[in-house]
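Please annotate the following for my students:
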Amino acid sequence: MKKKLVASLLLAGLLATGAQAAPAPLTAQQQTFRAIYQQLVEINTTHSAGDTTKAAQAMRERLLAAGFKADDVQVIAPFERKGNLVARFKGTGKKKPLLLLAHIDVVEAKRSDWTTDPFILQEKDGYFTARGAVDDKAMAAAFVSILAQLKTEGFKPERDIVLALTGDEERGGVPSNGGRWLLENRRDLVDAEFGINEGGRGELKNGKPFVQILQIGEKSFVQAEFETSGPGGHSARPTPDNVIYNLTAALGRLQQYQFPVRLNDAARMYFERSAPLQQGAVADDMRAVARGTHDAAVFARLSQDPNLVGLLRTTCVATMVNAGHAPNALAQSAKAIVNCRLLPDEQFAFVEAQLKALGGDKVKVTVRAESEQAPSSPLRPDVMAAVEALTAQMWPGVPVVPTMGVSTTDSRLFRAVGIPMYGVSGLFVDPATVNAHGLNERIGVKELYDGREFLYQLVKRLTR
């Protein structure tokens, strides 16, 4: 009786303090996935000091251990530490292949800026934290573990499943490596009827799944340099013609300028399906856009939201500034990098002309890099049906909203050559705290495992 009383008192105490029950133990497949995820995350794959070849080889060993033949798993490295992995899970050939695409390079991360070591996976307070915890090693590790599981289960797909883990995606798809290099040099290895990639995600609101985003198109980019120069001089004898002021004046004009609104079908669909999820003026404005409004005030209000402005118009923003050579001297040069994200049907020449006009007669504007544009992918009934059915099964009541991505992924490279790509992951994150590309990048532990299960079921549905 005393033992039961003590147990009851302990339980009551736990309930009173709000303590949560311990999470359920991991399944065998979750344990394997976690090991793959940790291994991949903890291999530094930054451009400056990392090694995607090492990461690709580690993932190859995982697939070989699961029963893949050596000839079906290749590490292709145009440069010593810039490797890519391409694996093929052979099916019956009844249907054309499905491509699973993920990049394994990550953006830079300074240990001194982070709360923890960005290249050591941290699991604490219900979150995984590390560089690449989401972007994009979560999907890459999920795909590796999924193919390994399907192989051990003896799964017989009706189409080949091609896995491509690529490098240099974070460098904008350089021609010397990654997805672009594979398409130009080994198209036979990655050719497919359609593919799944990053670009979409689930979003949490107040900690609960709110919406599943399906990316069917995306913007391209232009990177321009604003530069001005002069003779300089002593800071004690300032001149009216100051290169720093000339540059900041041009950047001020850029800040005030807005490209015209150009609404495409993918963006219109996003506003149409998102309006019921919003309230008040935002919902009304979204409905108005979906109906085809030309009201400038509606566009102005929605453009104040950084998550929406890119759906409405091309955007350009200053991202880096460098000026001066000494604290007591007038600067001899001043330079800024301006990053633009173009709507799929925006003309490069128009954007370049606008930038040069904003630079004025004292700032030289030079386009240093640009990406190809690509059409949006069609809404395939089989993809939509599978994504919507699985979303309803795993997160009842959560809608699937197709959209145009405002950032850039390697999907554009494949769309440009006729391979439709769909950005969808089932990985639910809080947009305000996920911090991809930022400090302390993280994802919820439960959300990671749920996303992996979603992708496992999705791959099976799309290949049967």
About this structure: The chain has a mean pLDDT of 94. The radius of gyration is 25 Å.
